[in-house]
Amino acid sequence: MTSAHTLTIESLTLAYDTHVVIEELNLHIAPGRITGIVGANACGKSTLMRSMSRLLRPRAGQVLLDGKDIHQMPAKKLARILGLLPQSPTAPEGITVSDLVGRGRHPHQRLFSRWSVEDTEAVAAALETTSTTDLAERAVDELSGGQRQRVWVAMALAQKTDILLLDEPTTFLDVSHQVEILDLLVDLNSSQGTTIVMVLHDLNLAARYCDELVALADRRLFAAGEPSDVLTEETIRTVFGLENQVITDPTSGKPLMLPIGRHRVVCKADGGMAATSNPGNDAAAQRVQKG
User: pLDDT by residue (tens digit) across 239-250?
Assistant: First the structure.
C-alpha cells in the first residue's frame, strides 16, 4: 500500500432533487494523512462522503483520484484503491461475521478466481485488529450495535485500500472501543501510509486523532487545516452555534473544546453548588434558530 494517490474535489455541488446540500466546494485531501470532517447535523458530511466514493453523482464539479474523474474509472479498479464504510451499512440476513468481512476482498478477486491465501490472511488480520476473531462464526444480526460496528470496520480493513473513507466509524461504540478503533486507524496510517478520511461527531476525538480537520457550514467549506487552526472558539461558535472554551489538551497537546451550556454549575464559597444561566449562549441559540 502507498500514500501516493491523490484525492481532490473541484467546484463540487451536491443536491437531492432541488435541495442543494454542498455548493462549489474545493478540497484537497492530504495524501498519507488522517483528515476529519466535522460540522453540525445535516450540513452535508455524509453526502460529501457518498460523492467521494462515487455513490452520488455531483450536480456540478468533480472528484478526482490521481487526476481522473472517479465516475470515469472502472468500478473494481476504484474499489482496489478507495474503500468506504458508510454511515448505516446493512448486512444480508443470516450472514456470518467471517463471510461479511470476506466481502471486503471482492475488489481483489478476478472472474472465476478462487479464494487465495492472501484473502484468508487479510480477513484474519482484520478480525484480529478489530478484536472480532471470536465472533467470526456468529451471525451479524445477532450482534450488539458496538460489535456490528467493529465488524464493519473489519470489512473495510480487509479491503486493504490505499484510501479509506469512514462515515462515523465510532457510532454505537462505548468510549473505550471508540478509542480502540481510532488507535487502530492511526496504526494503519502510520504503518502502511493509508490515507484516511472520516466523519466524526466528537470534536475532541477528531482533534486528537486527525492530522487535518475540515469544517462544513452553510453548504460550503468553512475552515480546513490542522486541528489548532480549525478547532477555535470562533469556528465552533459559528459552525455549531455553541458558546465554548478551547484549551490545550494536557494529554495530546491538541485543542480541547469545553462546551458552555445555558446552565452552568459553579462551586459556592460554602462548598455547595449553584446553577447559573449563560445569556451569551441564549443569544447564540437565537441566532441559529433565525438562520
Answer: 999 999 999 999
In the chain, what is the straight-line distance between the N-terminal and C-terminal CA atoms, in Å?
45
Q: How many residues does the chain have?
A: 291
Positions of E strands within the chain: 7-16, 19-29, 34-39, 60-65, 68-69, 82-85, 163-167, 195-199, 212-217, 220-225, 244-248, 255-259, 263-267, 273-277
Contact 199, 46 (CB under 8 A): yes
**Residue 90's closest CA among 103, 81, 71?**
103
Torsion-angle region of 112 (φ positive above 0: left; ψ -120 to 50: alpha; else: beta) = left
Residue for grid cell 460554602: 270
Instruction: Return the number of other C-beta atoms located less than 10 Å from residue 211's C-beta.
Output: 15
Q: Name the burial class of residue 16, with classes exposed (0-12), middle (13-18) and buried (19+) by CB atoms within 10 angstroms of its CB.
A: exposed
Q: What is the pLDDT of residue 107?
A: 86
The pTM score is 0.85
Per-residue 3-state assignment (H helix, E strand, C coil) for 85-134: ECCCCCCCCCCEHHHHHHHHHHHHCCCCCCCCHHHHHHHHHHHHHCCCHH
Strand 195-199 to strand 212-217: parallel, antiparallel, or no bridges (unpaired)? unpaired
